[in-house]
């Protein structure tokens, strides 16, 4: 019988914690240990820890939800035609991981008919875990979390992982955004979105992300009172271009989006 988004998803929420603990055990066993690093075709690094973690997550998903699809960073999709798809990023922030920096995370989402119903950001070294469920408050380690009430870009604390990730006019757009903000910080990868969901920063802008990078963030940000879309203001999906803007409030999101639209190139026609 097909599952419906109106169900409580109790089993699936419990599974998120199980998956996070399994991933945590693997990644921590390799963290700050000698490890071989390979470069993928896009020149991003990958390690045995990435691959072993995703393999275990896939095994767990297939065991608990055999009819569901899986989209991950390191292996080909499985059951891609399923109404329900689990999206996993075993190590978000591999560059942090291989350099001994604790701000790497494990991301998991559950989509139904393309809509993110569940999302999780787990930070293995820090012991912090954000969970989001569509239509429900987001949590940090089980306690409800909320974004700040920042409504103006001039008051906003802004994060992005690296300005080097912005190509061409996208960099100009981010620099315009940063110039209007109160404070800009770099680094963090998925951790920035957890900070946003807990009220410690107000705006995160990124470009060039993949579905496994951004889809797990959607329920977390929205359930904490924030807004997350692409740079055109469209909801994030499996087919988004990878330009992401997340804001603490609708008002701040609208101001940032207006600035980005005026600076960045539009989608290909």
Write structural notes for this entry:
This protein has 269 residues and is an alpha+beta fold. Helix content is 33%, strand content 25%. The chain contains eight helices and 14 strands. The strands form three sheets. It has a seven-stranded mixed sheet with strand order 3-4-5-6-7-8-9, with helices on both faces. A five-stranded mixed sheet has the order 11-10-12-14-13, with helices on both faces. Strands 1-2 form a two-stranded antiparallel sheet. A hairpin with a 4-residue loop joins strand 6 and strand 7. The longest helix has 21 residues, at 10-30. The relative contact order is 0.13. The model is unreliable at 1-6 and 265-269 (pLDDT under 50).
Would you spell out the secondary-structure blueprint of this structure?
Layout: H1 10-30, E1 37-39, E2 45-47, H2 48-64, E3 69-72, E4 84-92, H3 94-98, E5 105-112, E6 115-123, E7 128-133, E8 139-140, E9 143-144, E10 157-160, H4 168-180, E11 183-186, H5 191-197, E12 203-206, H6 211-214, H7 217-223, E13 227-230, E14 244-247, H8 250-263
Parallel strand pairs: 3-4, 10-11, 10-12
Antiparallel strand pairs: 1-2, 4-5, 5-6, 6-7, 7-8, 8-9, 12-14, 13-14
Helix pairs in contact: 1-2, 4-8, 5-7
């Amino acid at each position: 019988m097909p599952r419906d988004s109106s169900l409580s998803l109790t089993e699936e929420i419990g599974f998120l914690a199980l998956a996070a603990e399994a991933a945590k055990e693997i990644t921590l066993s390799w963290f700050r240990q000698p490890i071989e690093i390979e470069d993928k075709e896009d020149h991003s690094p990958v390690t045995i820890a990435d691959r072993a973690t995703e393999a275990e997550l896939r095994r767990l998903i297939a065991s608990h939800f055999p009819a569901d699809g899986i989209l991950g960073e390191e292996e080909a999709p499985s059951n891609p035609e399923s109404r329900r798809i689990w999206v996993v990023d075993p190590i978000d922030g591999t560059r942090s991981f291989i350099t001994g920096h604790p701000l790497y995370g494990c991301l998991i989402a559950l989509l139904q008919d393309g809509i993110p119903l569940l999302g999780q950001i787990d930070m293995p070294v820090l012991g912090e875990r954000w969970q989001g469920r569509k239509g429900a408050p987001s949590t940090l380690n089980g306690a409800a979390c909320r974004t700040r009430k920042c409504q103006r870009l001039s008051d906003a604390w802004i994060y992005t992982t690296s300005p080097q990730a912005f190509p061409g006019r996208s960099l100009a757009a981010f620099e315009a955004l940063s110039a209007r903000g109160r404070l800009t910080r770099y680094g963090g990868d998925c951790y920035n979105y957890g900070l946003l969901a807990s009220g410690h920063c107000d705006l995160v802008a990124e470009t060039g992300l993949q579905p496994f990078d951004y889809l797990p963030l959607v329920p977390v940000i929205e359930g904490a009172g924030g807004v997350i879309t692409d740079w055109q203001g469209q909801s994030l999906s499996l087919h988004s271009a990878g330009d992401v803007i997340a804001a603490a409030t609708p008002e701040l999101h609208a101001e940032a989006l207006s600035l980005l639209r005026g600076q960045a190139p539009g989608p290909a026609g």
